[in-house]
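User: I'm preparing a small set of examples for a lab meeting where we compare how different chains pack in three dimensions. I only have the primary sequence for this one, and I'd like the structure in token form so I can line it up with the others. Please keep the answer compact; I'll paste it straight into my notes.
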Amino acid sequence: NATDALVRSYELQSRLDLDGALRAARGAAERSPRFAFAWARIAELEFGFGRSAAAREALARALELAPRHAQA
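Assistant: Understood. Below is the structure token output for the 72-residue chain.
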């Protein structure tokens, strides 16, 4: 499910597999397109890769779904 995919994203990050972490976060968003936490996670990882336009898009989606999302 989407939550498991998001957990997997953090696990992969802890193993320094940032590409895998991003793929897992995207998988969470694909499984549950209205999961704001997944979109915020995608934004965080895209920003870390220096892809600010992609990060802004994902962040906008996260805030559209959950305007009071503290992490976003």
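A couple of notes for your slides: The two ends are 22 Å apart (CA to CA). The chain has four helices and no strands.

User: Perfect, thanks.
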